[in-house]
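Entry 14. Structure prediction run on the chain below.
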Amino acid sequence: MFCMRLSSYGQRNCILSGLQDDLYNVYSRMKTSKELLNSLEQIYKTEDAGTKKFFVARFLEYKIIDSLVVNEAFQISAIIEKLLPLWKDFKNYLKHKRKEMTVKDLIVKLHIKEDNIAVERRSKGNSIMNGVNFVEDDPNNSKKRKKAR
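Output returned:
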């Protein structure tokens, strides 16, 4: 942005000063800032497009092979990262544990957490039911009121 406020000659020098030495030697031969910018833009836009195509091709070539070994720490981290957002606190707890655990240990911890959540839900359901007052109509009571009128 600063270079754009300068004169054409100043812009050229500002752009050149930002280049690495080996690139400076190549582009210092350009006479105007416009010529310099066009040349740089053409090279780097082409290079960027080529890089993107290369990465897409590499991605599409990716294959999982039977001999692929994924270590247990990676598996555990992947499982923890995929936990539901509602389990955020438990996820943070697992991430900050210092002691290494096995996949079996993690599965046990997940089952315990799941059971605790189920108990909490049942407990909440019971407490809601305990707080409700049921009112039953007494058929004898309603007849007495009608007769009293």
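Helices lie at 8-17, 21-27, 33-61, 72-81, 88-95, 103-130, 139-148.
Filed with the rest of this week's runs.
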